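Hello K.,

You asked for the raw outputs rather than the summary table, so here they are, unedited. I folded two proteins back to back in the same session to keep the settings identical. This is the first:
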Amino acid sequence: MIKAKFMNKKSLALMAVIILGIGSSQLGYGQVKDGIRTERVTITGKAFVIDGDTLVIRSRHIRLQGIDAPEYKQTCQRPDGVTWGCGLVAARQLRQKLEGAKLTCIGEQWDKYGRLLANCFLGEQNLNRWVVASGWAIAYRFFTTEFAPEEEQAKATKLGIWSSRFIEPYQWRQSHRQK
C-alpha cells in the first residue's frame, strides 16, 4: 500500500482519476445523455433467467430491450376460464430456450433499476425477437416498435400469452405495486 505522505497532491489526484475511471468503466456507467447513462457494453456468458425479460450474466442484470413479458407472478385466463401462471411459464420457456447456452448481450442504456437494456443473441438469433415471436412477451411500444411485426404474428396465431386474456405487463405492475 502506498503511503499518502510520500505523494504530492497531483499524484493523489491522478490516482483518484485512474481508480474512479476504472471503477466506472467496470460498472458500465458511462456518459450521461439526456439524464440517461450511456455506454456501449457487451456482456457474454451463460444466463440465469429471472423472468421472461430479465437475465443475469456474470452478476450483471440485463433487461431485454423493447419487449415486456408477464411478471413472474402474473396470471392469464384461457377462453374456458382457467387461470394459469403465464409469467411463470414465460420464464420457463426462456430458460428452456437458453439451456445453459452462451449469450451475447449488447446495450448502451440502463433503466431506473440499474439493469442494462440490451438485445441478446443466441448465436445469430436475436433472443428479444424470439421471445415476442413465440408469444411470451409483447412488443414494448412505449420505447420502440422494432418487435411489433413479431407480436402481430404471435397474436394472430394465438401463441403463448396470446392464447389467453391478460393484462399488459406494465399495467399489471402498476396495479400490483406495493404501497
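The second followed immediately with the same parameters:
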Amino acid sequence: MENMTTVRFDVPVELADLLSRSSQNQFERNAMLILPFVRNLTVSHGRAAEILGVRKLELIAFYGKLGLPWTELREWVHIAPPEAPAETPAAAGSPFAGKTVVVTGKVEPYTRGEMNSFIASLGAVAGSFVTSKTNYLVCEDKAGSKLDKARSLGILMLTPDEFFAMAQAS
C-alpha cells in the first residue's frame, strides 16, 4: 500500500471497546466515530446517515442495538413544539380563516411568495396543489389541470379580482 500513513486520534472512553472489536465492519466503525458529533449536535442524524451512505432509520436502529435508543438520542436535542400562530384581528373575520387556498397562474403584480404571505395573513393555508382539502382555487379561466381537478372536486374557484374583493371585505 503505497502513499498510506497511520493516523492516531483520541476517542471517548466508552467508544474505545466498540472500536477495537476486530469483527466490526466499516459502517459500524464509522458510525461509532461519528456518534460523538451526533451527541453534541455538531452533526444531525440525517447528515450522519448521509455521510455513512445509509438511511437515517438504519443509523438509528444501529445506535439502538448499542443501547442508545432513539428516545434517548432525541432527548439530547431540545426542540420546542411549534407554537400555533396567533390569529391576527384581520384573520379572525376573514372568510379564508382556517381554509386552504391554492393559487395557480400569475397574479399580477404579486410574486408567488407575496401571494402565499398574503394568504397566510388572512388566516388561511397557501396550498401548492389541488386536493380534496382545498377550499378555494384562485385562477384565471385558462388554468389547466389544477382548474380541471378543482372542478371535478367541486372546489370554489375565484378570479384574482374576486379573491381580493373577498379579502378586502373582511
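The chain has two domains: 13-76, 89-169.

Happy to rerun anything if the numbers look odd on your end.

Regards,
P.
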